[in-house]
Structure formats: C-alpha cells, structure tokens
From TrEMBL:
InterPro entries: Kinase-like_dom_sf, Prot_kinase_dom. Signal peptide: none annotated. Coiled coil: none annotated. It comes from Xylaria arbuscula. This is Protein kinase domain-containing protein. Residues 80-487 form the Protein kinase domain. One of its GO terms (molecular function) is protein kinase activity. PROSITE patterns: PROTEIN_KINASE_DOM.
C-alpha cells in the first residue's frame, strides 16, 4: 500500500517519507507553524456552523467567517456576498466573496449581527484538526501540506466575472485575522502589497477597494482586512500534485516559462514599485531590471524577504499576450511573513536577494520532483560558459539520495526524467540552491539567461531527447489545459 502510494505521487524524494512512516519519530519541541493559505476541499461544509467550506476549520475561524457572513447579510444594500471560507492559517483565515454589479444592486432587509459572531483570539492551532491534516511531506514545500481531495482549486487573482441572469459580479478574496499578531501581519501584508502594486507576478489588491460601496463597508467593518484579486487556476503545488501522477517529465520549454515567472517575482521583491500612489486601474507591468543611470548605477536593491516562498504560496493565473501566450502567469501570494532585513556587519553581498533566489531554486527543484532534503553535495555545473564544481542542494538532479530508500522502480523513472532535462536548467537550478551565497547567481544574470532561453528555445532544440514530443506548442497546451486549467 505504501509503495502504491509512493508510485502515485511519482517522486522518490516524496515516497521515502511514506515508506519510513513506520519509524518512531523523535519528539520535537513544539512551535507554532504558519500554515496560512492552505486550502480545504470545495465540497466540504461544516456540520452546524452554516459555513460553506468549514469542515476541518478551527472554531475561531468558523466564528470569524460567521461574523463576516452576518455582517454582509445585515447590510441593506447587499452589494457584497459572503460565499465560503477557503483557507486558514495560524493567525488568519481567507474567505471567498462576491461583489454584485453596480447596475443592479439587491436591497434586502438587514439581519442582526448578534454577539455570538464576534472574532475570538487564537492562541495555537498545533493540536487542532487543521494542524493534524497537514501531515504529508511534499518536495515543493518546506513544511507540511494538506491532505485533501483533488477537487479544490483556491484562487486569489484578477477579478473573476461571474455571469448572472440580470447582472454581473466580481469575485474577490478577503483575508482577516484571528488574533492580535494576525492583525499586525495583515497590516504588514497590506503595506507590502502596496509597495508591489502593479507587478504582474505578485498578487494584487482587488479593484473592489476602489469602489465607493466598499469604502462604506470599511467604515463599519472592524479590524484590518486584506482584499485581493481572484486568481483563476489554483496553487502551483496543486498542479505539481496532479502532474506527479504522470510518469512523463514536464517539457523543458514549459520549465523555462515557469522559471521566468519565478525570476520576475524576485525582481519585483528586489526593486519594488516606488509609486505607492499607483492606482489599481493602471494595470500590470512585467518586472524588469531597472536601467542604470549615466554613472552605470542602478537603483539600490531592496532588502525585502518574502519569508514563506514555496509552491503553496504561488498561484496560477491566466494567459496574457505580452509574455505568457503559451504558459500562464504565476503569482506570488501571502506576504504575512515578509520583512525588510536590516544590514548586518560583514554579511555576504546581496544576501537577501540571493535568499529569495534560493527559494525559487527550491520551487524549480520541486517541479523536477527533487528535494533539498537529500542534503548537499558536489555537482558539476556550467554557468556563463565556465564548468566548475559547487556544493549544492540539487543533488537529486544527478541521483537520488540513499537517504530516501526509494524503490528501484522510482529510482529508474526519476533517472529517466532527469536524463531528459535541459542541462542549462539543471545548472541554473543547482546554482540557485548552492550552499555558498557567492555560488548563487545575481538576479541580473539569472533573469537574462532564463529570459533568453524561455523566449528563444523551440521544439527543435530538443530533437533527440526521449520526450521531444512534449516540447511542441500543442503538447504544452494539452498539459496546461489538462493539469492547470481544466483540472
């Protein structure tokens, strides 16, 4: 049974966790684990809370969702509708909302809020059903991931238009806190997203907040509230999970496209938008390296660290004409742990940027069904035409660690996929997760190399590869439609 489960997930690095579950685990000192934006099944309803999506959610989150639902049902204009709770973390919860068209607002008699729906502080979720459900290891995440069915696809993104019989509506996402620390984190997240406003690969505030009707709401709704766009196609982690059931590797051309999105996220964090008054209606811009001045100097790099950068905090949006005609836009979410790091004495050069670069390397490694858990080792890489050895956590791109104790069938399939990997992708991913800070690439070089390959390589570049048939535009479209858009 354990082996069957492992084969289904399709990665030896992940499989070893299932095989070794019978081993007695050492007791670890308890600590609060941040698990926000981890989804719950779409068809779950709480037995008695009257909240869609509430199964497995803590009492505090249910009460918070009940307060939100009652608040909007208690308004006479009924312009905004609570739909469901979609996720919960240790200090906050997220709900799915809908704004009716301004053309045909529905007016109903208000319902009383009632004292029972007040928000209650949460001290810990370590022993809650939420925490207990996050018990599977995944190579795309540093920590724990939810065990739930494949039907749920959370979304946070561009306002999704919902056709109605006599009116249209906009779906959006609202994030609220469960405790005082959560209020601080949400306030910090709002500030960070304002700095990153207009970045195509960063989740954006919803245009709902520019609607005068929302301003009326905010005058009555207590506590900080983060309102974000609805993103259509769920988590990158969920795409990985669905794709892991397939033996074939991801096409190299698709990997280049996803890698480029990740690099653009790092650029956004490195040079945040400086126009803090930028209106949401101004649209989104692709993140680029800012030009140097006459002295050859670029604007200083920010020291903004995301702090929770992994596949469960990256979402899949739509195609767009500028750079995403084949592969969709990826967007980074959940900035509750982001922070500007202070300068330390004798710190390595660009340590903050290169910490973000290591994070995108780990995401890429997960897409390649590898993991840093195998530990570092010496790897031969070629970078800027120079071949050298570096100490890197990407050793799964050479061979699977014996620590995994993976079945031979999984080892063989993994090696077959790795043999199909573009050596340039291998070298870049290995460099991104290098142990030494100085062995990791600068974002200027990394973006240039990845952008050039993503835009120039065609299916003809992979003639002779075992899975060359996957490199055509049509094959990539089928994978995206099947495992991203229609899943």
């Amino acid at each position: 049974m354990k082996e069957r489960l492992s084969v289904a997930y399709g990665t030896a690095a992940w499989a070893c966790q299932s095989i070794q579950k019978t081993k007695k685990k050492k007791k670890k000192k308890k600590k609060l684990t941040i698990i926000q934006n981890k989804p719950f099944p779409e068809n779950n309803k709480m037995e008695g809370g009257g909240i869609e999506g509430g199964a497995g959610v803590s009492e505090q989150a249910i009460r918070g969702a009940q307060y939100i639902k009652a608040f909007f049902e208690g308004r006479s204009d009924r312009n905004f509708v609570f739909e469901r709770i979609i996720s919960q973390g240790s200090w906050g919860f997220t709900v799915q909302m809908m704004m009716r068209s301004n053309e045909a607002p529905e007016t109903l008699s208000p319902r009383p809020l009632g004292n029972a729906f007040g928000l209650q502080p949460i001290s810990s979720l370590l022993d809650s059903p939420v925490r207990q459900s996050f018990n599977q290891f995944n190579p795309m995440s540093r920590g724990l991931v939810p065990s739930f069915g494949p039907s749920f696809r959370p979304s946070l993104g561009r306002g999704s238009q919902i056709p109605r019989a006599s009116q249209s509506a906009t779906r959006f996402v609202m994030k609220r806190s469960l405790a005082e620390v959560g209020e601080n984190n949400i306030t910090k997240e709002i500030d960070t997203l304002n700095r990153l406003r207009g970045s195509m690969h960063i989740a954006q505030p919803s245009h709902v907040i520019d609607d005068p009707r929302w301003n009326n709401v905010m005058q009555s709704l207590k506590g900080p509230t983060l309102v974000m766009d609805w993103i259509d196609h769920g988590l990158l982690w969920s795409f990985y999970e669905r794709r892991a059931e397939v033996d074939e590797p991801l096409p190299n051309r698709l990997l280049w496209a996803l890698f480029l999105c990740l690099c653009r996220m790092v650029v956004a964090l490195t040079w945040p938008q400086r126009d803090l008054g930028r209106p949401i209606s101004a649209g989104l811009e692709i993140e680029t390296i800012p030009p140097a001045n006459l002295s050859g100097e670029r604007p200083p790099k920010a020291r903004l660290l995301h702090g929770d950068f992994h596949g469960q905090n990256i979402m899949i949006d739509q195609l767009e004409p500028q750079e995403h005609g084949t592969a969709p836009v990826l967007k980074l979410i959940d900035f509750g742990l982001s922070r500007d790091l202070p300068v330390r004495v004798n710190e390595p050069r660009n340590i903050v940027v290169k910490t973000n670069i290591r994070a995108i390397g780990e995401v890429m490694l997960g897409l390649l069904r590898g993991n840093v858990k195998g530990g570092p080792g010496l790897m031969d890489i070629t970078y800027n035409g120079e071949t050298r050895k570096i100490n890197s956590y990407a050793t799964d791109l050479d061979r699977l660690s014996s620590k995994y104790r993976a079945p031979s069938i999984l080892v063989a399939k993994h090696q077959e996929r790795i043999a199909n990997l573009d050596p340039d992708i291998r070298s870049l991913v290995a460099s991104c997760v290098a142990v030494g800070i100085d062995d990791r690439p600068d974002i200027e070089d990394l973006l240039g190399i990845v952008e050039q390959n993503a835009k120039s390589k065609t299916a003809n570049d992979y003639v002779g590869y075992k899975y060359a048939n996957l490199e055509t535009d049509a094959a990539i479209k089928r994978i995206i439609d099947t495992h991203m858009f229609d899943a």
